UniProtKB/TrEMBL annotation:
Residues 33-267 form the ABC transmembrane type-2 domain. GO terms for cellular component: ATP-binding cassette (ABC) transporter complex. One of its GO terms (biological process) is response to antibiotic. Its main location: membrane. This is Transport permease protein. It comes from Promicromonospora soli. It comes from the Bacteria. InterPro entries: ABC2_TM (IPR013525), ABC2_TM_bact-type (IPR047817), ABC_2_transport (IPR000412), Nod_factor_ABC_transporter (IPR051784). The lineage of its organism: Bacteria, Bacillati, Actinomycetota, Actinomycetes, Micrococcales.
């Protein structure tokens, strides 16, 4: 009789997480409300860029839409990874999904892998819905092999840097209704992140605030991939800081991957069948 070693058990949990992530993505896309949510912001961004046609960055002949699009790409990656998972965790906590994961060997590892995969795929869908039509109205962009390779790397690292952190934050929420606080926090973090306004025009203390979070670095990375070299003058130190960008996002990824399973396990220890039932009753009492 053979026994399963810990590494084998963890790989089994990872494989289970991949299967779970694919299934959850399928079900989420088939849900009309979720599908509309994934496409709503890309459609809004494209409409805004349509109104920018013919406009240029003040003092230059560079298309305004081309200047804005890369920042929107970076923001969409960060928003997809930071906002969605937290709300899902709160719902899974109330309906007993996390309780079942706790009862499975290495279940939290598989659960986390599934969430990373699901939100990677759904965020990718939103990005495709944004980029394909937007590039037709945003001239002057650099779209070569380097651009696409760098965007793929930024997207992958961005998901690893944001989804685990969002899972950890979602584990701290007591109800799904509290996810609105994270949405508000995300909106506030966008302000000093150089997404809609050059970060170099902000006060220095706000620049440091922006550089502490993934929004700025993902926006910077997308700009470095899609904008011509001449536009680097608007950045801090007149540099794309590619190494620093990957380093900071890498730190966020490591912190998230370490913290998320710990916070999930601690939260799951407090869960029981009675607490899940009570949460479900509160949920139904609200008329959902």
């Amino acid at each position: 009789m053979t026994t399963t070693t810990k590494p084998d058990a963890r790989w089994a949990a990872v494989r289970a997480g991949v299967s779970r992530g694919l299934l959850e993505t399928k079900y989420s896309i088939q849900e009309p409300s979720d599908f509309i949510w994934y496409l709503a912001f890309p459609v809004i961004y494209v409409v805004v860029m349509l109104f920018m046609r013919g406009s240029t960055v003040p003092g230059t002949d560079f298309a305004l839409g081309a200047m804005v699009l890369p920042s929107l790409v970076g923001m969409s990656i960060a928003f997809g990874g930071l906002q969605g998972p937290a709300g899902t965790i709160a719902v899974d906590r109330e309906d007993g999904t996390l309780l079942r994961a706790k009862a499975t060997p290495n279940g939290m590892v598989g659960y986390l892998v599934g969430k990373i995969l699901m939100f990677t795929l759904t965020t990718l869908m939103s990005l495709v819905a944004l980029v394909i039509p937007a590039v037709t109205v945003a001239g002057d962009l650099r779209l070569d092999a380097r651009t696409w390779l760098l965007l793929v790397l930024i997207f992958g690292v961005g998901m690893l840097a944001t989804v685990p952190i969002s899972v950890a934050l979602g584990s701290l929420l007591k109800t799904a209704g509290q996810t609105g606080l994270l949405f508000l926090a995300s909106m506030l973090l966008i302000v000093p992140s150089g997404i809609f306004y050059p970060i170099t025009a902000l006060p220095e203390w706000l620049q440091w605030v922006g550089q502490a979070f993934p929004y700025y670095w993902l926006g910077l990375g997308a700009r470095s991939a899609m904008l011509p070299e001449s536009m680097v003058t608007a950045e801090i130190g007149e540099s794309w800081r590619t190494f620093e960008m990957f380093a900071v996002l890498g730190v966020w990824a490591v912190v998230g991957m370490v913290l998320a399973p710990i916070v999930l396990r601690k939260m799951a220890r407090r869960e029981s069948g009675s607490t899940v039932a009570a949460a479900r009753e509160r949920y139904m009492a609200k008329g959902y």
